[in-house]
Write a structure and sequence with these properties.
four-stranded antiparallel β-sheet, alpha+beta, binds adenosine-3',5'-cyclic-monophosphate, Alpha-Beta Plaits
Length: 138
């Protein structure tokens, strides 16, 4: 069993498409074991995306991610990290495969609908960024 962090990004919350993303997660057999809606400050977004500090898109990324509420979730299942990344599709919706969430709901590389951890070490960091032990359900 593996855990990963998923974020439903601001434009999806704004457009009223949260339920559609959650349906895809559940239909794929990933279990949601924690979930909440939060509005990050710019500083919190910078802390979450610290690995991208220094990249040309860092300011835009963290401004966008703090521009409105997001839904954060812990997904659990066998190979949850790679399964969630497959379900999301490529970072750039224009390059994402047919049938993926980013292809269906993404607008551009920044407003790309969802986020997912890219490794078990980033999953550990990202889950503990948002959730305490008592918020993680079995
Ligand atoms: P995400 O999976 O949340 O991880 C980092 C985010 O940076 C990524 O999705 C994109 O939304 C955003 N981003 C913006 N511009 C770029 C870019 N040129 N290359 C990669 N990621 C980018």
């Amino acid at each position: 069993m593996e855990r990963t962090l998923a974020i439903i990004k601001p434009e999806i919350v704004e457009r009223g498409l949260v339920g559609k993303i959650i349906s895809r997660i559940e239909e794929a057999g990933l279990k949601i074991t924690a979930m909440k809606m939060v509005r990050l400050t710019k500083e919190q977004a910078e802390g979450f995306y610290y690995v991208h500090r220094g990249k040309f898109f860092f300011h835009e990324l963290t401004s966008y991610m703090s521009s409105g509420p997001v839904v954060v979730m812990v997904l659990e299942g066998e190979k949850a990290i790679s399964r969630w990344r497959l379900l999301m599709g490529a970072t750039d919706p224009a390059k994402a495969q047919e049938g993926t969430i980013r292809k269906a709901f993404g607008t551009d590389i920044q407003r790309n609908a969802v986020h997912g951890s890219d490794s078990s070490s980033s999953a550990s960091f990202e889950i503990s960024f948002f959730f305490s032990g008592m918020e993680l359900h079995a």
